[in-house]
Fold these 2 entries.
Entry 1:
Amino acid sequence: MKRLVFLFCLLFGITAAAQELQNSARYEHFIELRNESDTLRMKQMLDDWGAKDAEYYAAWSNYCSIMAEETEDSSWLGLAVNWIKMGLEEYPDDVLLLLKRPQVLYDNEQYQEALLVLQELEEKGLDEASCWFFSSSIYTMMNDRERARQYLRKMIQEGDEDYRALAEETLQAFDQDDHMIDSLILVPDHAAIRKFAETEDFQRLVTRFEACDTTLTREDVSNLYYGFAYKKDYNLVSSINESIQKLLEEDKVQEAIDALQAKLKEYPVSLYLLVSIFNLTKDPAVIETVAWKAQNLLIIINNSGRGTVDSPLQVICVNDEYLYLGQVERMQGVKSQVLVEEGPLAPLDQMTFVNTYGLEQVLNFYLTPPYWERLHSLFQ
């Protein structure tokens, strides 16, 4: 479920190792220059450093990080990672370099790699407040709020004043976000919707939706989306036939669009059809219409649950799971799809995917009753 993601910034000029390590006076002076963004004097110190000790590699990494900020050239961040890598090749057990490594990986948006390093440091007992900071940030991006909270609590209990203040502020933001999410969740009442789908009021909702009636409420769109699954002639398995696919293969785009729009009259809540038309057409009026419809349907799915086993997202077909992940979560790829036989609405379709940050994330989907009823009927 797409939620507010709180990306944190190091506001206090603290490196990953500066808190608990006894660094040399020279390195501490270098860090002061780094915090002052004095790149000229930093470079002069590096040129005059002498022997390449562990602090030399850490200093070069710091220099590259500040240059990335000054020049807005992200390639410097890759160099910052490389300097730490080179340092660890010579000094594999140096605590300064070990603790700085997750920071530079995080800054370079190598979040999955940073998480693995953070887990290794925790196993070795080398984690500290800065590591908890990065861990909480990454787990937030994975939508794993409980683990993120655990590290924030560590920061409050064992971190210094600055880290405690940051963690307390973030936990407060989490609580506000959770309250907002709870207020938006609208779980469909399938027993009531099944009956409603056979009424004239339902048909009026269809007409209003097709006309992009902006006075439709969330409840209206929810009843429409889930209600359509109970219509006897609604095809939950496939919303596009081979003839349309053939038109696309023959590059007959406008004919394909026309065919898709004709199909949409039969299946007005088909996300597959709406997204397909959006991706193919260049007509601004058509784009506006299908975008409005798709957005409202995705909002209803997004508000149907938290995506957990106890509160899954609800969809009327498997296609809509993939379209939700692609359109809302901006996933980079699916890692696995398994049936989960637990939770109040089991069975659930559990999707593990790579999210927009390159991190693995898990969401659980509940396929509404008509899907399973019709699927079972195919094998009877």
Entry 2:
Amino acid sequence: MVKQKKKAPGRPKKEFVSKKTKTQVQAWPGRPRKNQEHAIDPNQIPPAIVWHVEKSVDDSKRKDMVILLLFLLSFILFVVSLYFTFMRDQKANTLTQDEIAEITNIETGNIDYTMPISTEMPPVEDQETVVIDTTTPPVEQNVTSEQQMIIDFYQAVNTIDMSTIYTLTEGRLEESNVFKTYYNKRWLSMFSEVVLAPKITVTNIQEKSSIDNPDIKNFTYTLEYTIARNQQKFTEERSTVLIKKWDDRRIGKLMCETKGCSMMPFFNPEKYK
């Protein structure tokens, strides 16, 4: 049997030693574990951080105060504007003499009922009982149907027959502001109280030459009435446009042609009581 030779142990390995100088690492608590509370000593917080936090809190309070003041100011402005709007609406329900003069145009005496229309419906009249004189005014003989329509309209004005007044007038005229002012039940009642029977009389109805349109006819006529207080007689020259709508004609325009007409009793009955 051949014997195996033992290997020589050889030269021992040298231990590696770094020639760089070692730096001393300061101890640091490190990141706390999830289940470990990391308490901070208030005395260790830098003063700069404390000042910054206090300043942030003061700024936040200041902003809250400014927002509160702005809200109160806007609320006060809203209440004031609501009050003035309410007072303006209340004032708009009563027509002053200046407003009446502006509507009726004192300088020319013309009353144009073709003003821009509003979307309001005609006012609902009160069902109050009014004592009136139903005496029929003198009627011209041999009148046409259009002339008779004008006479019927002023008979309805004399008797304050609102149903007939709205039946004989065209929709745009009914919706005009001036028509609503002077041809409502309250205004006609005031006028009826200051004039003598037979109240308004219609005379001298004449058809005017107009454009070649058979659906539109122009008429002039004279209104007469007498004041009850001093027996003073008034005369107004007026004109009317009749518009044909389907098979019927309707009053589409009313004009007072007399200068200073807006100062007469029909438009100012309170002055002639």
